[in-house]
Amino acid sequence: MDALLAAAAALAAALLVLLLIRRKRAQFGSHVASLAQPPKPKRELRIGAWTRAEVAAHNTREDMWLIIRDKRSGEWRVYDMTDYVEEHPGGYAILNNAGGDATAGFHGPQHPPTVFDLLPDYYVGTLVDP
Ligand code: HEM
């Protein structure tokens, strides 16, 4: 009888451990998924040609644009990153140059090459007075 009880207890413990592992995996998995696929911008983005002054007006956590120069074409591009601020894995450092030129910071070693794939979703046009 004792042996039966011990076996039942061992089984219950094993099940509990399995359950905990599954839960941890689910949490970890969704974290990885959120890194790979940040949500698309919620707002409708208006594409245009902007001046530095116009971009500079969007310099808060709730309304945040960045200028990032495309290294290959040399084109000065503007991005409405508002909906990404809270998703940014590097936290509020993304606001360091809010409303201004973030080219140098964006090309920093902290960023994996995949950041380039994220940018097009936030594109709102070009800069007319670089
Ligand atoms: C299009 C997407 C992204 C943009 C526009 C962006 C932009 C920025 C900017 C402007 C900074 C500040 C750099 C500086 O002033 O020196 C920064 C910092 C950083 N970013 Fe991003 N980022 C993006 C995506 C990511 C991703 C996907 C990761 C990680 C997987 C990441 C990790 C970091 C880290 C670790 C920092 C430094 C944080 C600190 O200094 O405290 N970023 N990012």
From TrEMBL:
Q: Which terms are listed as keywords in the entry?
A: Heme, Iron, Metal-binding
One Pfam family assigned to this protein is: Cyt-b5
Instruction: Provide the protein name.
Output: Cytochrome b5 heme-binding domain-containing protein
Q: Which SUPFAM superfamilies match?
A: Cytochrome b5-like heme/steroid binding domain (SSF55856)
Family as reported in the entry's similarity comment: Belongs to the cytochrome b5 family.
The record's Gene3D superfamilies line, in alphabetical order, gives: Cytochrome b5-like heme/steroid binding domain
Molecular function per GO: heme binding; metal ion binding
Q: Which GO terms describe its cellular component?
A: membrane
Annotated Cytochrome b5 heme-binding domain ranges read 47-128
Q: Which organism is it from?
A: Raphidocelis subcapitata
Q: Which InterPro entries match?
A: Cyt_B5-like_heme/steroid-bd, Cyt_B5-like_heme/steroid_sf, Cyt_B5_heme-BS, Cytochrome_b5
